[in-house]
C-alpha cells in the first residue's frame, strides 16, 4: 500500500512543470541515499498542490476496467458521449486515445470534481454542495490541472481560472468581487456550456494535422500508414505526433517535430521504429511483432494491448496493460508498473546508445541513477496468483546496435550494464575472439577459405530467415520512392 501511494504521488509529480535541472538534482539526491530511511526522509521533503492531487486521483476512475467490456467487447449503450478513437472499426473503446470520452467523463462528473475543491464548511453533512456553496479562486486555479481554454479561438491557451476571471464573463461565472469567491452552481453551469474536446488531441491531429511522409506504403496491404503532427500549430506542451498502421518496414527519425511531443503509436505491425529525439510521453497500443527504440521520454511510456513487441527506452515511468510476450529494455528511475491483463513479460537492462542520447537525457531530466528497471510493481488484481514477468537471463542477453550515423558525443551505454550482463557480454566477446583465432591459425588454403566463407554466409542467411531478422536488414535499405509517395 505504501509503494502504491508513493507511485500515485510520484506519477503526479512527474506531470508538474519542473525544469530538467530540478529533476536531475532530485535524481542525484536519491542516488546518494544509502538506506530506505534516507529515501523516506528525502521523499518527505516533496510537496504538491493538494487540490490538484485530489483531482488527479479522482480522474484515475476513467481507466477503470469494465467487466462487461472485458467479456463481450462492448458495453451496453449508455447516455454518455461515445465517439470513435484511432481504431474506428473497433467495438471496444480505447479510453486513453478517445478525446471525446475524456470530455464525457469530465462533464458527467463535473459536480463531484468541483465538490472535491470546496472548503468543508461549504458542504452538507453528506459531503455535497448546496445552492449557496461558494468556491474559492484557489480551488478554480487547481482546476487548471485539467482544463485550459482560449478566448475567441485566438490560439493563445490560458488556464481555466484566468478565463473565469476575465472581466466580460465574471457575472456568468458567478464571481463576486465582494466575497472574492465563485458561486458553485453558476461556475458549474458556465463550465458545462463552454467545455469542448481537446483540440490538440490525437483524433484531431489525424484529421487536421500536417501529414508526414515518413512511412512507406506497402503494396498488397489494405490499410494505409498514417502519420500526422500538430507541431506547427500547437502551443508548448500540446505537441502531438500520431502514427498508425505502419507495416513491415523500418522507420527512423530524429526530428524537431518529435522534440517534446506526445507520441501516439497505434496498430503498427512487423516493423522497427526508431524515434531518436527527446519525447514528452509515448503510448503504444495494439501493436504486434515490432521493435520500438525511443529517445528519452520525460514522463511516461504506456503499452496497451500489444503482442510480441520490444521496447528499448529511457523514461521516467513505464507501464503496461493487457499485453503479452513483450520485452522491455529500459532505464527508469521509477518502478515499472504491470497493470491488469499481462502475460509473459520480460524485463532487461537498457542496452544501446546513439550519439545524442546523453544530451537528450539531460534535456528530459533523466539521469542514469536511480535505475529500477529490474523492480516491476504488479498492481493488477490478476497479477497476484501467477507470475506475469521474469528478468532476462544473462545467457540470452545481447547488446542492441542502432544502425544509423548521427552527430553527438555519446559513445557507450549510459550507466553501463549490470555486472551479470556485462560478464555475459564479455564472455561472448571472448568466444568470438577464440573463434577468429582458431580460423586464422587453421592454415586454410585460399580455396578452403573461400569455401568456408561461403558456408558461413549460407548458415548466416538461413539463421536470418529463421529468426525473422532478414526483414530488419532488408528494410534498412531505402526503397525507391514512387512519384505518388513523393507527392504525399
From TrEMBL:
Keywords: Cytoplasm, Cytoskeleton. It comes from the Eukaryota. Residues 82-97 have a biased composition (Basic and acidic residues). InterPro entries: C-CAP_CF_C-like, CAP/MinC_C, CAP_C_sf, CARP_motif, TBCC1, Tubulin-bd_cofactor_C_dom. GO terms for cellular component: spindle pole centrosome. Residues 76-97 are annotated as: Disordered. Pfam families: TBCC. Gene3D superfamilies: 2.160.20.70. Transmembrane segments: none annotated. It is found in: Cytoplasm, Cytoskeleton, Microtubule organizing center, Centrosome; Cytoplasm, Cytoskeleton, Spindle pole. Residues 221-366 form the C-CAP/cofactor C-like domain. GO terms for biological process: maintenance of centrosome location; maintenance of Golgi location. Belongs to the TBCC family. This is TBCC domain-containing protein 1. It comes from Callorhinchus milii (Ghost shark). The lineage of its organism: Eukaryota, Metazoa, Chordata, Craniata, Vertebrata.
Amino acid at each position: 500500500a505504501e509503494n502504491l501511494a508513493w507511485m500515485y504521488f510520484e506519477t503526479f509529480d512527474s506531470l508538474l512543470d519542473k525544469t530538467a535541472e530540478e529533476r536531475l538534482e532530485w535524481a542525484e539526491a536519491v542516488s546518494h541515499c544509502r538506506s530506505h530511511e534516507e529515501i523516506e526522509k528525502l521523499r518527505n521533503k516533496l510537496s504538491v498542490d493538494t487540490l490538484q492531487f485530489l483531482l488527479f486521483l479522482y480522474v484515475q476512475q476513467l481507466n477503470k476496467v469494465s467487466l462487461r467490456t472485458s467479456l463481450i467487447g462492448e458495453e451496453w449503450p449508455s447516455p454518455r458521449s461515445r465517439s470513435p478513437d484511432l481504431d474506428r472499426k473497433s467495438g471496444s473503446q480505447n479510453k486513453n486515445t478517445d478525446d471525446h470520452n475524456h470530455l464525457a467523463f469530465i462533464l458527467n462528473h463535473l459536480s463531484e470534481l468541483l465538490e472535491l475543491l470546496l472548503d468543508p464548511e461549504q458542504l452538507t453533512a453528506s459531503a455535497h454542495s448546496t445552492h449557496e456553496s461558494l468556491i474559492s479562486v484557489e480551488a478554480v486555479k487547481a482546476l487548471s490541472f485539467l482544463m485550459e481554454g482560449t478566448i475567441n479561438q485566438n490560439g493563445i491557451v490560458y488556464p481555466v481560472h484566468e478565463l473565469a476571471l476575465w472581466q466580460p464573463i465574471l457575472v456568468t461565472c458567478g464571481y463576486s468581487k465582494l466575497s472574492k469567491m465563485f458561486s458553485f452552481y453558476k461556475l458549474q453551469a458556465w463550465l458545462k456550456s463552454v467545455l469542448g474536446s481537446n483540440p490538440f488531441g490525437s483524433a484531431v491531429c489525424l484529421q487536421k494535422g500536417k501529414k508526414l511522409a515518413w512511412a512507406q506504403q506497402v503494396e498488397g496491404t489494405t490499410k494505409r500508414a498514417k502519420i500526422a503532427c500538430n507541431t506547427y500549430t500547437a502551443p508548448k506542451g500540446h505537441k502531438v505526433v500520431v502514427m498508425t498502421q505502419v507495416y513491415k518496414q523500418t522507420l527512423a527519425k530524429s526530428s524537431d517535430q518529435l522534440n517534446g511531443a506526445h507520441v501516439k503509436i497505434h496498430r503498427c505491425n512487423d516493423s522497427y521504429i526508431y524515434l531518436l529525439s527527446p519525447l514528452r510521453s509515448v503510448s503504444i497500443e495494439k501493436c504486434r511483432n515490432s521493435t520500438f527504440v525511443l529517445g528519452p521520454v520525460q514522463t511516461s511510456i504506456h503499452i496497451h494491448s500489444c503482442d510480441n513487441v520490444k521496447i528499448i527506452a529511457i523514461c521516467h515511468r513505464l507501464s503496461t496493460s493487457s499485453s503479452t510476450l513483450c520485452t522491455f529494455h529500459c532505464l527508469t528511475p521509477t518502478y515499472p508498473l504491470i497493470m491488469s491483463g499481462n502475460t509473459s513479460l520480460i524485463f532487461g537492462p537498457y542496452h544501446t546508445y546513439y550519439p545524442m542520447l546523453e544530451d537528450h537525457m539531460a534535456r528530459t531530466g533523466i539521469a542514469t541513477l536511480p535505475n529500477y528497471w529490474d523492480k516491476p510493481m504488479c498492481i493488477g488484481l490478476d497479477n497476484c496468483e501467477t507470475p506475469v514477468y521474469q528478468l532476462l537471463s544473462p545467457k540470452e542477453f545481447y547488446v542492441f546496435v542502432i544502425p544509423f550515423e548521427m552527430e553527438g558525443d555519446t559513445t557507450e551505454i549510459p550507466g553501463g550494464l549490470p555486472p551479470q550482463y556485462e560478464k555475459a557480454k564479455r564472455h561472448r566477446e571472448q568466444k568470438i575472439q577464440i573463434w577468429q583465432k582458431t580460423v586464422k591459425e587453421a592454415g586454410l588454403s585460399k580455396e578452403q577459405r573461400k569455401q568456408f566463407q561461403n558456408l558461413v554466409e549460407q548458415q548466416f542467411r538461413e539463421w536470418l530467415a529463421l529468426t525473422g531478422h532478414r526483414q530488419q536488414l532488408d528494410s534498412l535499405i531505402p526503397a525507391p520512392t514512387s512519384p505518388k509517395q513523393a507527392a504525399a
